[in-house]
Amino acid sequence: PCRGASAVDLTQDAAPPQVPSTSCDGDSNLSMWIYVLLGNVLRGIGETPVQPLGISYIDDFASEENAALYVGCVQTISVVGPVFGYLLGSLCAKIYVDIGYVKMETITITPADARWVGAWWLGYLIAGIITLLSAIPFWFLPRSLPTSESRLPQNGTQEQTSFIKNSLHPKHKYQAEEHTNFLEMAKDFIPTLRTLLGHPVYLSYLCVTVIQLNSLIGMVTYKPKYIEQHFRQSASKANFLMGVINIPAVALGMFSGGLLMKRLKLNIMGAAKLAFGTSLIGYILSLFFFAMSCENAKVAGVTLPY
């Protein structure tokens, strides 16, 4: 018998011993998702003007024979960026999430362990600093550049002048000094939108965009997880493979498209047909993914009985 232990009356009903719970009873701080939401909102506000305004800036002031090549270069760079993003994510996934707050010598799990959580927040911090630095040169760009005689509205081709039929303000395109208030923009929005939706070039561009995003989002979102599950790879290696294999092919295609338009000197309708045709072919070829088969992961209670 243990010394100092008091006798226990076994004839009385004793309360069951309190077993400490090993489950996670602490409440998670669910309000932290608001910061992630606000960060994505700010990121969207900063990224959105780059495509519509940047492409229009190049198209208005670049020479007609080089505009397509310049736009192709811009689109290529926008795709090359995710390559470095995947590589950065691969490096951050190898770093423990609480780096700087815990002693790494006490961490006994490795990135190959399913319980490992990488430093997902570190990539946002690094990319945010680089984005702030890259935004500085934009403050030195002029609002408008000198336009050659061939790019003036009165010297445009018949196809260019009829791109937006019955435009209410055709002179606004090359007058950056003219200020328009919000009420005037809202008043002209519905008629301009109706005109755009009735134009075949714009509708072709919408079809191309839908087809591209339909295939691209599925690949970017689910393919890394597919590599992890079916090929038994870590999250860092899956991101690395996505960055060095898939994205460069897309970048090469975009640059080749701009170079091809420059060589063939395609007009607006020719460019729309080229974009629609190549995207449709790529979409049809992606249907062969359904022919791929892979064994299901062995999970007790899901694919295997207990």
From TrEMBL:
Pfam families: OATP (PF03137). The keyword Ribosomal protein does not apply. GO terms for biological process: monoatomic ion transport; sodium-independent organic anion transport. Keywords: Disulfide bond, Ion transport, Membrane, Transmembrane, Transmembrane helix, Transport. GO terms for cellular component: basolateral plasma membrane. Its main location: membrane. The chain crosses the membrane at residues 121-141, 202-220, 240-260, 272-292. It comes from the Eukaryota. Residues 1-23 are annotated as: Disordered. It is a multi-pass membrane protein. Gene3D superfamilies: MFS general substrate transporter like domains. The keyword S-adenosyl-L-methionine does not apply. It is found in: Cell membrane; Membrane. GO terms for molecular function: sodium-independent organic anion transmembrane transporter activity. Belongs to the organo anion transporter (TC 2.A.60) family. This is Solute carrier organic anion transporter family member.
